[in-house]
Amino acid sequence: MSNLLSLRGVHTHIGAYHILHGVDLVVPANQLTMLLGRNGAGKTTTLRTIMGLWHASQGSVTLDGQDITQKPTPEIAQSGVAYVPESMGIFSDLSVRENMLLAARGARKLDDIDTDRLEWIFGLFPAMKKFWLHPAGKLSGGQKQMLAVSRAIIEPRKLLLIDEPSKGLAPAIIQNMIEAFRQLKAANTTILLVEQNFNFARQLGDSVAVMDDGRVVHSGSMAELAADEALQARLLGLSLGAHQ
């Protein structure tokens, strides 16, 4: 199995702070890789380093065989990477429609967007069609998260980087999000997803990497981690079984 993304010995400094301490991480193509770990372990910094928002001070980031370690964020985005931050990054004063049109880099007007793809997104997230002309800032938290993901997938991407998509969402909306990611997986979308909801992680993850103190301390099959409560307790301080 080929790896779409590889991080080798990545160190990241933010000002005087040394956040990542030699991260080694691979993301297999056409799979969903979960990035788990306690708060402050370095998960968000890893995503931001991949996206070029912060640059690695040492080590390498390789995407589809190309070194992107020091490339600027717009160039990384143009190479087919979309990033959904924990803050969601939507434009609150713009409508859902306008947010989607901005995200479709190849479209200057709505008619330029692939109609079949837009209808597919409406199938994943019906609220996007219902609130198409509404200001994004008026949406609920769950609807804003749906919009953030919809923006990321309005065009085909090589890689999706998604930071805690279920945070603060009601259980019914989380289940809707899980089903949407299942469909993305079925369409052979490569995803690296940071998540604190372990039931969410277990249902979706193919592979998993666990971070602690700025390093990847475990990598392997998500199913194997989900089945090994002793390993869960050692790596994460809790059991996935307690979050069913």
Features:
single chain, 244 residues, alpha/beta, Rossmann fold, 2 domains, four-stranded antiparallel beta sheet, 10 strands, disordered C terminus
What secondary-structure arrangement, pairings included, does this model have?
Elements lengths: L2 E12 L2 E12 L3 E6 L5 H8 L7 E6 L2 E2 L5 H6 L2 E4 L11 H8 L11 H10 L1 H5 L10 H12 L6 E5 L7 H16 L3 E5 L3 H7 L2 E6 L2 E7 H6 L1 H8 L8
Parallel strand pairs: 3-8, 3-9, 6-7, 7-8
Antiparallel strand pairs: 1-2, 1-4, 4-5, 9-10
Structure report:
The structure is a single chain. It contains ten helices and ten strands. The chain starts with a strand and ends in an 8-residue tail after the last helix. 35% of the residues lie in helices and 27% in strands. Helix 3 packs parallel to helix 6. The protein has a six-stranded mixed β-sheet with strand order 6-7-8-3-9-10, with helices on both faces. Strands 2-1-4-5 form a four-stranded antiparallel β-sheet, with helices on one face. It is α/β, with parallel strands linked by helices. The chain has two domains: 3-80 and 158-243, Rossmann fold (3-Layer(aba) Sandwich), CATH 3.40.50.300; 88-156, no CATH class.
Oligomer: single chain
Major sheet summary line: 6 strands, mixed
Number of distinct helices: 10
State Rg. Answer: 18 Å
Low-pLDDT runs: 239-244
Identify the overall geometry.
Answer: globular
Q: Just name the CATH architecture of the largest domain.
A: 3-Layer(aba) Sandwich
How helical, in percent, are the residues?
Answer: 25-40%
- The total number of structural domains is 2
What are the secondary-structure elements, in order, as H or E?
Answer: EEEHEEHEHHHHEHEHEEHH
Structural class: alpha/beta
Name the CATH superfamily classification of the largest domain: P-loop containing nucleotide triphosphate hydrolases
Average pLDDT over all residues:
91
Our estimate of the beta-strand percent is 25-35%
* Strand order in the sheet with the most strands: 6-7-8-3-9-10
Q: CATH top level of the largest domain?
A: Alpha Beta
The CATH topology of the largest domain is what?
Rossmann fold
Report the strand count: 10
First-to-last CA distance: 30 Å
Pfam family, one: ABC_tran
GO molecular function: ATP binding
Protein name: Branched-chain amino acid transport system ATP-binding protein
Family: Belongs to the ABC transporter superfamily.
